[in-house]
Amino acid sequence: MLKGKLKLEELTEHDVIPNVRQKGVDMRIGVDVSSLAFKRQVDQIVLLAGDADFVPSAKQARREGIDFVLDPMWAQISESLQEHIDGLRSTCPRPRPKQPKAILQPAVDLVV
C-alpha cells in the first residue's frame, strides 16, 4: 500500500500478517504474585507455568507465608524452581506421545 501497488479495497486476509508479541508477561505475573502476597489477599497461589523466570515470585510469596503450587502441565521444570515451590501437580491429562505412522512394506516373494 505504501508503494502504491495495492489499494485498501484490494486487501485480503493473505496480505496481512499479525505481529503478536508477549512482552513482559512474566514480569506482570510476578508483580501480581507479589501484590497478592504482600496484601495477604490469598492463602495459596497456583501457577500454570514451568518457567524458571518465576523463581523470584515463588520465593517471595513463600516468604510471605503463601502456599505456592506449580502446575507445569507435565513439562520438566528447573531444579531452582523446584526448590522454591510448596507443591507440584499437573491437573490436565498427560499428553500421549505421538505414534509413528505405520510404514507399509511391499510384499516380497523370496525365491530360494
Describe what you observe in this structure.
A three-stranded parallel sheet has the order 1-2-3, covered by helices on one side. It has a domain at 27-88. It is built from three helices and three strands. The longest helix has 14 residues, at 25-38. The mean pLDDT is 87. Helix 1 packs parallel to helix 2 (55-63). With 112 residues, the chain is α/β, with parallel strands linked by helices. Strand 1 (44-47), helix 2 (55-63) and strand 2 (67-70) form a beta-alpha-beta unit. Helix content is 24%, strand content 9%. It has helices at residues 25-38, 55-63, 79-82, and strands at residues 44-47, 67-70, 87-88.
Overall geometric form = flat
Low-confidence stretches: none
Oligomer kind: single chain
Strand composition percent: 5-15%
Q: Outline the biggest β-sheet.
A: 3 strands, parallel
Order of helices and strands: HEHEHE
- Figure out the total of helices: 3
**Whole-Å distance between the termini?**
72 Å
Structural class by helix and strand composition: alpha/beta
Query: What is the strand tally?
Result: 3
- The rounded Rg comes to 25 Å
What share of residues is helical? Answer: 10-25%
> Overall pLDDT, averaged?
87
Strand order of the largest sheet: 1-2-3
Brief characterization of the structure:
With 112 residues, this protein is of the alpha/beta class. The chain is built from three helices and three strands; from the N terminus they run H-E-H-E-H-E. It has a domain at 27-88.
Reconstruct the topology from this structure.
Elements: H1 25-38, E1 44-47, H2 55-63, E2 67-70, H3 79-82, E3 87-88
Parallel strand pairs: 1-2, 2-3
